[in-house]
TrEMBL record:
The keyword Transmembrane applies. Residues 1-20 are annotated as: Disordered. Keywords: Membrane, Transmembrane, Transmembrane helix. The lineage of its organism: Bacteria, Bacillati, Actinomycetota, Actinomycetes, Pseudonocardiales. The chain crosses the membrane at residues 26-44, 56-77, 84-107, 119-138. This is Integral membrane protein. It comes from the Bacteria.
Amino acid sequence: MSEPQQPGSPRKPRYPKATSTGPGRVLIAVYGIFALSATARAGVQIAGQFSDAPLAYTLSALSGVVYILATIGLAGTGPGFRRLAWFSVVFELVGVLAVGTFTLLVPSDFPDDTVWSDYGIGYGFIPLVLPFVGLWWLRRTGRAG
């Protein structure tokens, strides 16, 4: 049992739990796989057929960069990495919702799919679920304990 806090006494600093522990390792692995696959896919598309669907291929490249940043942020320790993880996962959520909606409303602007097309249907909707899991994990590990 801990001692009660005396008025005026200094408080012990409470730090968030590292995001790379426990289930966070699986989350980092999934982000790493998506970072690799989205970046490789975009690279092949941009190198071979960029003029066919420049918007779609550019968005695929952007999603790859976002997944790379999220992986680095979640795997790192310290407040800078945590901020990077928050930024990239929130950006990912906004991106998948925006691109997913746009590809359903104006499919003619997307002659080829992106990772985030139709909310990630081509990837089993993992791109839609992943940012929610990432945000939950960041919030859960952010609680000082």
